[in-house]
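step=encode ok
step=design start
structure_in=
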């Protein structure tokens, strides 16, 4: 890939012959930089970076994330060359010849390309388009129903399609490009809470029937008892939050229920009891933003961790939580408890 601005001409290619740490490499690099998120044992890719600045020409190697595509992997802005390598994005100051920032992106099966957009960068992934600010922080994510097969950036929007023939548009409006979420949480009314409680009991009963093969009557009785244990005072249970999720235009897109609890060792934790995004609003980033908003509030309330339970068969949910930084803690009947340090 070739890039050019008023100060530099840069060529970025993958060097399949270079082995990091080996004394037997044929090619010599004046500078070898290693992306910070890489850990021992990770698969990596060596990028050969050739820089022409005035009459000076030099080479650098970047040891980055695992990828086999260098066709649209980089963006050049001023002195900073940004390279996408798998799930790692790295900024290199060409004048100082050092890494200025390097971050690991939320999990996507494959990330194909990196582009400049108003206010930041866009990463074209197999199942998601991810928007980053100039510090490489994720400010939005938009998904698709299936594998994304086409992608183009226009003056005021991104257009993309998936393999099933569905088309999508992301407009570059103020809500999208700001670092503030386009999701808001509003407390349920008591009537909405009653509807939520009925759903929650019915849902939990259905899961018990599926995982433990119990009858409908027993499952519903156990589900009601479990709800009463977690929320003994119902809508007024202390440190419990029953919230509607609304988009930036005020439309209801789902709900979330969580509770501040005493965790292990006397440390306070937030427990995610239930999260639902309406089917028509899924893969638009609402779930991820809602989880981050919950955790941000919990951290301010002195919670040191965020915990949840996910059923074994809920693979989509497990993938979502892993992307948001949750890790398995211990198995429980029918599923697994996951935790994220705040």
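sequence_out=
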């Amino acid at each position: 890939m070739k890039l050019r601005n008023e100060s530099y001409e840069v060529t970025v290619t993958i060097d399949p012959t270079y082995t990091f740490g080996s004394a037997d490499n044929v090619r010599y690099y004046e500078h070898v930089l290693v992306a910070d998120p890489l850990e021992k044992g990770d698969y990596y890719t060596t990028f050969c970076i050739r820089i022409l600045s005035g009459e000076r020409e030099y080479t650098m190697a970047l040891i980055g994330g695992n990828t086999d595509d260098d066709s649209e992997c980089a963006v050049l802005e001023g002195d900073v060359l940004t390279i996408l390598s798998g799930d790692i994005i790295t900024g290199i100051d060409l004048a100082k010849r050092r890494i200025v920032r390097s971050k690991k992106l939320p999990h996507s099966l494959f990330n194909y390309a990196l582009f400049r957009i108003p206010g930041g960068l866009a990463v074209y992934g197999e199942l998601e388009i991810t928007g980053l600010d100039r510090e490489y922080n994720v400010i939005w994510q938009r998904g698709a129903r299936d594998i994304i097969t086409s992608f183009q950036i226009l003056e005021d929007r991104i257009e993309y399609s998936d393999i099933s023939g569905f088309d999508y548009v992301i407009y570059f409006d103020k809500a999208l490009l700001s670092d503030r979420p386009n999701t808001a949480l509003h407390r349920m009314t008591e009537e909405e809470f009653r509807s939520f409680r009925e759903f929650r009991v019915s849902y939990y009963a259905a899961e018990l029937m599926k995982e433990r093969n119990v009858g409908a009557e027993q499952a519903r009785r156990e589900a009601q008892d479990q709800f009463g244990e977690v929320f003994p005072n119902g809508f007024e249970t202390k440190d419990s939050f029953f919230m509607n999720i609304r988009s930036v235009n005020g439309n209801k897109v789902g709900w979330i229920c969580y509770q501040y609890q005493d965790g292990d060792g006397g440390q306070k934790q937030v427990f995610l009891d239930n999260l639902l995004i309406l089917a028509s609003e899924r893969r638009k980033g609402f779930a991820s933003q809602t989880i981050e908003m919950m955790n941000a509030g919990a951290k301010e309330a002195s919670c040191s961790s965020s915990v949840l339970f996910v059923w074994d068969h809920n693979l989509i949910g497990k993938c979502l939580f892993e992307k948001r930084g949750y890790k398995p803690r211990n198995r429980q009947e029918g599923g697994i408890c996951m935790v994220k340090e705040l």
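step=design ok
step=annotate ok -> The chain is about 20% helix and 45% strand.
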